[in-house]
Amino acid sequence: MTARGSERRSSWRPGSFSVFFPMGSPAKPGAWSPWPWLFLAAWLLNPPAAGAARSRSNILLVLTDDQDLQLGGMTPLKKTQLLIGQLGATFANAFAVTPLCCPSRSSILTGCYPHNHLVRNNSLEGNCSSLVWQKFQEPYTFPVYLQKQGYQTFYAGKYLNQYGDPKAGGVQHVPLGWNYWLGLVGNSKYYNYTLSSNGREEKHGDLYEEDYLTDLITNRSLAFLQRLSRPPFLMVLAPPASHSPWTAAPHYKSAFSTIKAPRNGSFNVYGKDKHWLIRQAKSPMLNTSIEFLDNVYRQRWQTLLSVDDMVEKVLLQLKSLGLLDSTYVFYTSDHGYHTGQFSLPIDKRQLYEFDIRVPLMVRGPGIKPNQTYLEPILNIDLGPTFLDIAGFNVSLTPMDGQSFLPLLVNKTCRNGWRSDFLVQYTGEGCSSKDPYCPALGPGVSQCFPDCVCEDAFNNTYACVRTLHPINLQYCEFADAQDFVEVYNLTADPHQLLNVAKAVDPSLLEQMNQRLIKFQACSGPSCRS
After folding, report:
1. Quick check: is 413 catalytic?
2. What is the value of pTM for the model shown?
3. Is residue 410 included in any domain, yes or no?
4. Which residues does the record list as 3-oxoalanine (Cys) (modified residue) (predicted)?
5. For the sheet containing 420-425, what is the strand order?
6. Alpha-carbon span 332 to 69, nearest angstrom
């Protein structure tokens, strides 16, 4: 859409905002304790030597759902932090390029920004796992390249939100690139779900020992490793945690009983000078809303304890099979989450740090233990990094991201790493013919009377996020106001003050031009 302009103190105006539209053995019950596992985990505390050979290395990706970083989302994962982060690298500035499940997971799979893979929301109409996606994007996902390089490939868990829909091939459709496929039909669940097991329907009920999805993924992955005829392999484990309905394993339902959502930063703060949707939130929140989000926060942590068990069990299996030292292990989430920030009780979909920052930890051959990196890493960098590990030339693909393997193993490109990147989101909930979406609307999971229609059509924005030389975020909205938000995150890390009307107009113009270039980028031009 073409910018209409608005009254400002200079001649600067927002640029052309491109809104893209597409064509067409279970854990045994027991009380949770942070200590017993230390003795077992100590067996794994043998990091591979720096500089170890990485040719034909195995790749394991653990991809969680809706797991934040900013609000303490990694706190429950003590074993994971020890076994991956302390024995490898932690990235303090890892980001999703869009804060919604299907577009973000599509970015991970393709290594592309949303304006290039054309998935704009979680619906079939928004190109989520659609026939168009299957025809034009799935052939260029990272497992396809790795399979051609001789990798045995295994996927278990949530894929894309509309996967398995009858209008998109049903459970019979096995995405390209996977030798062993165990894909969840639809969105995250813990019980009473359907899987596609290599194209065959597999229904599950509500018996913990047989059906709890996180543990089922764990057990199937252990069986795959046990039967593995030869490396190298690629494994992607995509558990439902910490997505709604936040169903913990029975033995973890009493964990964190006194925990509450963090009350600092922007919690329960009115979103002054922010876009129209944020200003609709009831502020201060009602006590019922705060009680609700506290329960959600606690339950999210409880579901992650089973993920922590997953990581430990899989790494123990790799160790026992002699495969751990030749395996790169990645841990991340598809995007962040909020619980009470700017008086929004629960959800994602916002441009702020709590929704776009994600955890990212990596261990593997040549990675020194206990390293922390400050370079901005994007979820579109995962695919290129996997291809780099496999020895495949990423420049031969349409991927927008770049491999961060050189950062991990030899630090050769630290000075030339990116300093800024693009964040995009296209609203989905209300019709484009209704520019005044009501405060409450369809599409918000687990909604209740105090929530806001966060998936409104005109909650559509694009941002440039830059970390160097200035820590800044610049965002333009595709709405009737051409609304702009700008944050100096050095002075204002919680993004409380929109300084769009106070900063030098030349800076606004510079950021506007950078945004226009980002929205038109593809492949190498996205990395320059």
Report:
1. no
2. 0.90
3. yes
4. 101
5. 420-425, 461-466, 472-477, 484-488
6. 10
In a domain, 443, yes or no: no
Q: Strand 152-158 relative to strand 180-184: parallel, antiparallel, unpaired? A: parallel
Distances, alpha carbon 466 to alpha carbons 36, 90, 333, 354, in Å: 43, 20, 21, 16
What is the 3-class SS of 334-388, one letter each residue? CCCCECCECCCCCECCCCCHHHHECCEEEECCCCCCCEEECCCEEHHHHHHHHHH
Tens digits of per-residue pLDDT, 57-104?
Answer: 999 999 999 999 999 999 999 999 999 999 999 999 999 999 999 999
Q: 417-466, pLDDT tens digit by residue?
A: 999 999 999 987 554 444 444 444 444 444 555 666 666 666 889 999 99
DSSP, collapsed to helix, strand or coil, labels residue 34 as coil
Residue 338 lies in a domain: yes
Q: How confident is the model at residue 307 (pLDDT cuts 50, 70, 90)?
A: very high
Q: What is the pLDDT at residue 281? A: 86
C-alpha–C-alpha distance, residues 521 and 528, integer Å: 9
Could you tell me how many residues make up the chain? 528
248-252, 274-278, 375-379, 384-388 — which is least confidently predicted? 274-278
Range of the domain at 279: 58-414
Quote the tokens at residue 342: 């700017």
- For residue 179, the domain's CATH number is 3.40.720.10
The letter for the amino acid at 453 is C
